[in-house]
Amino acid sequence: MTILCANGFLAGQKNIIPMFQSKLASCGNDGSNVTLFETFLWHRPRGFVRRQLHLNRFRKSLEEFFDVAEPDLIMQDAARALDRMTETSTSVLGLQQQRVRLSVLLKQRKPCACQADYPWEVIGPVLLTTARHQILEPQAMAWRLRVSHVGVDSQNCWLGVKTSRRELYDQTRKELTASCARSNSSSPSTLPEVDEVLFLNEHGEVCEGTITSVFANLDHPSRDNEFHHRQLNDLLSESSESTTQSPSLPLLRSLSPASTGGAAVVLVTPPLRCGCLPGVLRQELLNSGVAREQVLSVADLRVASRSKGLWVGNSLRGLVRAVLVEDDEREDCKSG
Predict the structure, then answer these.
(1) Residues facing residue 152 across a β-bridge
(2) Pairing outcome for strands 127-132 and 120-122
(3) Rounded distance, CA 336 to CA 334, Å?
(4) In whole angstroms, what is the distance from residue 102 CA to residue 92 CA?
(5) 107, 132, 166, 279: least surrounded by Cβ within 10 Å?
(6) Which of 199, 233, 214 is CA-nearest to residue 323?
């Protein structure tokens, strides 16, 4: 049996191998500058949600990937910038929640084929920018997901750091709703909007979305997953109230609803070796024991979607219920 999946590529029953294309031509440097950034949720009265986990990832990128000199100084500047924003939050951040981007510009001292041969240097100050953000309610309509026909290279080292070098993801995000609008212009009410696109690697393994990590509950029936979604979002919200400490791991571990016979909820998420960004929300769920790493196939996504056990999420939006949309559900929105 064959299945025609979301973006028009034909696949066998077990695996879907997309048209392969690296996110970047190589892992090397082309001589251009790179922006390393973190995107925080600032919430009144909690402050910066998952602040320490974001800073941990920022520092690890500076030290291990970019090999910058004196990362302590950069981290001190970053912490001071966040503290100053918190101190002036009443006047500067008037809304209840804001999206705050912390960024720094880097340049390699000598362009080369392998980024590890030459360290990078910071060529600009630590910057903070803010924008309005609307927090999604856990009860909101599920996001509709499709699988991209363009794959990513799991060996591409840039996939593991949050930088401005994410052209495929950014372009896909921009075109996400426009393509459906064009295909459906004659009958706009026929197809609801698609909210996120998922990428597979060269082995047909699930990686991540354009802006989200992927999570699946493959063990529990749909009636339990409805309960899990509400409980997980409540506990994630409570565990992130501290702006300086790590999330409350025991609080997340306490999720053990009677409807599952006392068994703790365990979500599965693709391992980093598949070609994933180490997402902050993802890391929180792994630290807590609520999630574990497991290679996921498109078949797994189908199972999770049918049982209401499929989620995507990031630190800004939290966990969002999701459903996998395939061509039989979006026949008016095929790629041209």
Answers:
(1) 201
(2) unpaired
(3) 6
(4) 16
(5) 132
(6) 214
Using the 8-state DSSP alphabet, how is residue 28 labeled?
Answer: S
Q: Tell me which amino acid residue 334 is.
A: K
Residues 6+ apart with CB under 8 A from 261: none
* Distance (Å, whole) CA 102 – CA 163: 11
What pLDDT is attached to residue 211? 95
Yes or no: say if 120 and 66 are a contact pair by the CB < 8 Å rule. yes
Report residue 290 CA to chain centroid gap.
17
The secondary structure element, H or E, covering residue 261 is none
Residue with tokens 């630190």: 315
- Residue 212 and residue 98: Cα distance in Å, rounded? 18
Model pLDDT, residue 299: 96
Could you tell me where the beta strands, DSSP code E, fall in the chain?
3-4, 10-11, 34-43, 47-49, 97-108, 120-122, 127-132, 143-147, 196-200, 206-209, 213-216, 267-269, 291-293, 310-314, 318-324
The number of residues making up the chain comes to: 336
- The DSSP annotation for 294-313 comes to ----HHHHHHHHHTT-EEEE
User: Which pLDDT value is given to residue 43?
Assistant: 83
| Contact of 230 with 238, CB cutoff 8 Å | no
